[in-house]
Amino acid sequence: MIFSAGPDSSSDLALWVGIEPTVTRVGEEVLDQLVLSGFHERLSDVDLLGTLGAERVRFPLLWERTAPQGLKDADWRWADARLERLAEQGPEPILGLVHHGGGPRHTHLLDPAFTTGLAEYARAVAERYPHVRAYTPVNEPLTTARFSGLYGHWYPHAHDDGSFWRALMHQLRATVLSMQAIREVNPQAQLIQTEDMGRTFSTPALREQADFENERRWLSIDLLMGRVTPEHPLWGYLRSCGASEAELDWFCEHPCPPDILGLNTYVTSERFLDEHLDRYPAHFLGGNINRSYADVESVRVRGAQPGLGADRLREAHARYGLPLAITEAHLDCTREEQLRWLLESWRGAQQVRREGVDVRAVTAWAAFGAYEWNSLLTRREGHYENGLWDVRAPEPRPTALAGLARKLAAGKAAAPSHPVLAGPGWWHRRERLLYPPFGDVEAEPVAGPPLLITGETGTLGQAFRRACEDRGLPYVLCNRQQLDITDQDSIEAALKRWQPWAVINAAGYVRVDDAENDPRCERENLLGPKLLAEACAAHGLGLLTFSSDLVFGGDKSVPYLESDQPAPLNAYGRSKRDAEAAVLAALPGALVVRTSAFFGPWDQYNFAEFVRRELKAGRRVTVANDQTVSPTYVPDLTRVTLDLLIDGESGLWHLANVGATTWAGWARQVASLEGLDPELIDAVPTAQLDLPAARPHYSVLGSERAWLMPDFEDALQRWSMATRDR
Questions:
Q1: Collapsing DSSP states into helix, strand and coil, what is residue 495?
Q2: Are 509 and 572 in contact (CB under 8 A)?
Q3: Which of 341, 403, 641, 725 shows its CA 20 to 30 Å from the CA of 578?
């Protein structure tokens, strides 16, 4: 093998990192991940990659981006600047030339000219960057052929076996010809070929279909290695797809074995086939020409335990004996699950390496996140998956994944420091099981130090309880008797008893009008958070506590930012403003979240639920038409704040759903969604409500730190769907 020495042959596993770069066409629309994530614009992102200690970077130098009008008009400036900067940082690039794409618009995967066109581009790349020694000409050719030629998701949207074969053949021929061209320039160039090798499981009745899919998943590598002869299990299938003997023989005559075989590992790639259609939602149903069946994530099916990255490495080693790497390890999930998946991928690769398998690296994928993969890139909805950095900020914000990646690169995987890593990922917990349905599955206890949550009876306390249970985060939810935040001795006793890694203060005084004459407001909203902050500082613990939009006076007509000066109009707002200052003075690392106007699906004491209840009963609702607020959907708030807490974020943050409405406008939106009579809503000036506490006319929250919350209208629709049965 060419790849027999160098940094990847060291005694320990290497960290690689990758950027999600897919350029896909759906109809006439082009979706460019590098533009969406901002990597296209930010040269400084290359410097961030250099901070990880990664040995290699899967770097996108895509054909359709560099030479969209042909090689004579190629623009190399973007690549020149970034590869030069990458060389200064140290990681070695693995150049990807096509990533789930079809090349420039003048060609596509079913066009024979795709093969020669990519090879010409590959030669030009090698001539311009002769120092680069690693290439992935086409990422996941089999997966791309399925999605473009068999399932019709991506351009050219074909739905037949013949198109699947053409798309696969053209990509693999292009790979062979590209490596030939590259090696004429650089004889030491390496092919690092990636593919998703997820396994298919099934009921006994569908064993034949599962066996076929499990054989097909190796097809791209078998072809590159010249193994597809008349004795190959899929020879007959390929011939039935329209493959000629000459086309198949061509690969035997031009073998191009990978120097490293890269496996892209995802929980959802492991599938289960079941003929019992009534067990599954309609969107999972499909089949072959002989019978119908459901195709679902294996991890969700009772009795079907899927193998994961380590098992796929063992399979690939047994089949090929090639050097291996995990070339994508990523999960679209909450932060602790992303951490658990990356660490499990790493430890699995280490274990397989200890068994004598030549595993070179694990790649932390989607360094700057990814867009729209929840719909397989077929819809534009703004869905974003965090990566090592979150790009929904003025500059990419490092997440806890970046910290874990640095530890892995430094050889510190044995004892990662983040407490959430003590628990198992959702793919191991029994509540993952959904099919066949037979009622709720009780959550199992999760190991590790807990989060200590105050405010057992409140909306936020209960919401965090649900979030922690859903996310497999150990927690203790305390009532006032267990933890009185206004009593220093009570706080110390609770910290000693439960030994948390962080405290979430979901307690506090919430009656804005009563606060004008009630000393408990200052005690619970100022003294309590101050004492918690002092105790957390003394014990080295994290703290998340909440403030309010009512710290502002309403003198603006555009959203308030974190740096805007508070000027509260009422006692409640003053207690929150003073608490912010006291908490951050005692514990600068505290996370203090300003938010506004809660509503959620679980409690009956929020504004949206009140409006629906009153209108359903035919009662009139009187609400202010001159107070503009930014309502906050509690499930969104708990999800984002837990991620920020796990990331180790600190300081003031504004978190409310994006959008602004008056209370009267909100009430009308509820009426419209629920099909209720808006004529029962009386919209009046605040002065007519005779409220004891003054309110700002405008208290909408925006952020200069990050834009993490979904739109308010989207949140209200989700609330309506979640509560429709009431």
A1: helix
A2: yes
A3: 641
Classify strands 370-371 and 384-385 as parallel, antiparallel or unpaired: antiparallel
Q: Give the start-to-end residue ranges of the domains of the chain.
A: 7-415, 449-722
DSSP state of 724: T
**Nearest CA among 561, 476, 494 for reference residue 532:** 494
pLDDT value at position 659? 95
Q: Which residue has the tokens 């009267």?
A: 664
pTM: 0.94
For residues 477 and 466, what is the distance between their CA atoms, to the nearest angstrom? 11
Cβ 170 vs Cβ 138: under 8 Å: no
Residues of the chain with pLDDT under 70: 1-11, 306, 415-416, 441, 726
What's residue 308's pLDDT?
81
Q: How far apart are CA 480 and CA 547, in angstroms?
A: 20
Residues paired with 451 in a beta bridge: 475, 502
Helices (H), 204-334: 207-216, 219-224, 235-240, 245-253, 309-320
- Helix, coil or strand: residue 715: helix
Phi, psi of 203 (to 5 degrees): -70, 165
CA-based nearest residue to 668, from 611, 590, 626, 594: 611
pLDDT digits (tens, 9 = 90+) for 54-77: 999 999 999 999 999 999 999 999
- For residues 140 and 100, the answer to whether their CB atoms sit within 8 Å is yes
Exposure string of 427-455, with b = 16+ CB inside 10 Å and e = fewer, is: bebeebbbbeeeeeeeeeebebebbbbbb
Superfamily of domain 7-415: Glycosidases (3.20.20.80)
* Distances, alpha carbon 111 to alpha carbons 102, 107, 171, 377, 599, in Å: 9, 6, 10, 22, 53
CATH topology of domain 449-722: Rossmann fold (3.40.50)
Which secondary structure element, helix H or strand E, spans residue 637, and what is its range?
helix 634-647
Contact 293, 277 (CB under 8 A): yes
Active site positions, annotated: 572
What are 282-286's contacts with CB under 8 Å, separation 24+? none
